[in-house]
Amino acid sequence: MRISRLMTANGPRTVRVEGTTFVPIGDPYAAFEAGTVPADEGVAITGVLLAPCVPTVVVGIAQNGPEHASPVQAWLKNPRTVTASGAPVRLRRDAGVTVAEAEVAVVIGRDATGLTVETAHEFILGVTAVNDLSSPDRAAFDPRNFESKSGEGYTPLGPWIDTGLSIDDDLPMRLSADGEVRAETSSHRLPMSLRECLAYVAGWTTLGAGDVVMMGAPFSQAPIRPGETVEVVVAGTRLTTPTS
After folding, report:
1. Are 128 and 158 in contact (CB under 8 A)?
2. Residue 145: φ, ψ to 5°
3. Cβ distance 103 to 217 under 8 Å?
4. CA separation, residue 201 to residues 45, 59, 114, 115, 198 (Å)
5. In this structure, are residues 134 and 58 in contact, taking their beta carbons and an 8 Å threshold?
6. Which site from 30, 93, 109, 153 is most exposed, i.e. has the minimal number of CB atoms within 10 Å?
């Protein structure tokens, strides 16, 4: 199932996506907790796509290539930076170069207490695409990456959560800007597996329903310029970000 959120005339609604059709559904996290599939709640509706979840916590994993030794390092991103596919983002002009990174984003389905490498799949609602925008020139002043990665709109996410994708699959990732491919890679090129990363984070903090863990960008980061439209594709999930 592909799960997203839609802004309608009556407010935000959670929907399942069938091609260009949006059907309202019940709470996907309650259904996940109960081991069921969220039921339809009416006929197809229209509206504007929102980010597919509203995380309380957004964790990033710092593993971009083999130079990142185990254990990996995690950092936090302001959840208010999360924005929808297609939403325009104004790049910072006061922070040097802006970099885009195509990454797998894992959406947690329930309280992740007890998550281990072996049981990680039992806590995951699904997988989506994320464009991890950042201003790496600020690293000299911001060693924890919070400022450099928390520009307004700097976490485009979506457009949907794909519950059919497995964290064990080799998920392909592609980053393009204005139609030019800047990077192509896959999740199996990460130094640590998605399971190991999730267990690492869950080992020292609490994750819950709707939280997001961004898994790192194995050789998929590229500088972008204002005015370019950035596209991230993760295993068929296509996320578009026009910039200014």
Report:
1. yes
2. 70, 5
3. yes
4. 37, 8, 11, 9, 5
5. no
6. 93
pLDDT at 192 over 80: yes
Q: What angle do CA 132, 134, 140 make, to 5 degrees?
A: 140
Specify the pTM: 0.95
10 Å Cβ neighbour count for 243?
A: 21
Name the one residue in this structure whose structure tokens are 């990732």.
Answer: 173
Residue 66 to residue 64: CA distance in whole angstroms: 7
**What are phi and psi for residue 158, nearest 5 degrees?**
120, -150
Residue pair 107/1 in contact by the 8 Å Cβ criterion: no
Signed CA dihedral, 74, 184, 150, 2: sign only:
negative
Alpha helices in 41-174 (DSSP H): none
Structure tokens at 191: 């130094």
Q: Is residue 206 within 8 Å of 213, Cβ to Cβ?
A: no
- Sort strands 212-214 and 58-62 into parallel, antiparallel or unpaired: parallel
Q: Is the peptide bond before 28 cis (omega within 30 degrees of 0)?
A: no
Q: Which residues of 129-144 are buried (b: 16+ CB within 10 A; e: fewer)?
A: bbbbbbbbebeeebee
Dist CA 135 CA 95 (whole Å): 6
Classified as helix, coil or strand, 31 is helix
Q: How far apart are CA 83 and CA 71, in angstroms?
A: 30
Give me the pLDDT at residue 65, please: 56
Q: Map tokens 């929907």 to a residue.
A: 15
The values of phi and psi at residue 243, to 5°, are -115, 160
**Which residue type sits at 196?**
E
pLDDT at position 141 is: 83
CA dist 142 → 98, 145, 147, 175 (Å): 15, 5, 6, 25
